[in-house]
Amino acid sequence: KLRCRYFAPGTGARIEHRRDRPRAPAATQREDTKVQASMRLNLGRKAVALALVLAGACSALALAALPEVRVGVVVDGPWPQNDMVRQLTIREATLLTEGEFDLSFPDESYLIGDFTLDTARANILRLLDDPDVDLVVTWGLLASQATCCLGELPKPVIAPVVIDPRLQGLPFDNGTSGVHNLNYVALPDTLTEELENYRAIVPFGHIAILTGATLLQAIPELPERTARALAGSGVECEYIPVGTSASEALAALSSSVDAVYVWPLFQFSPAEYRRLIDGFIERRLPSFSGLDGGDVEAGMLASAGSPEFFPKLARRIGLNIQRILLGEDPGEIPVEFTVRRRLRINMATARAIDVSPRWEVLIEAEVLHAEDLEGAYELSLEKAVQEAIDLNLDLLVGRRKVQAGAEEVARARSALKPKVDLSGSHVTIDDDRALASLGSQPERTVTAGASLSQLLYSEPAWANLKVQKSLQAARVHDLESLKFDIVLEAATTYLNLMRAKALERVQRNNLDRTRSNLDVSEVRRDIGVASAGEVLRWESELATARKSLVEAVADRRSQEIAVNRILHRALDSLFIAEDVGLEEVGLLTGLARFQQYVDTPRGYEIFANFVVIEGLQRSPELARIDAGIAAQNRLRLSSHRAFWAPTVSLQATLEEILSRGGAGSQGVAGLPFTLPLADDSNWSLALQASVPIFAGGLREAQRRRAEIEFQGLSLERAAVEEKLEQRIRTALEQARASLVGIGLSDRAAQAARGNFDLVNDAYVRGVASLLDLLDAQTAAVNAEEGAANALYDFLIDWLEAKRSASTLEPFVGAEERDAWVARLDVYLREQGVALP
Question: Between the CA atoms of 383, 384, 390 and 396, what dihedral angle is there, to the nearest 10 degrees?
Answer without folding.
Answer: 180
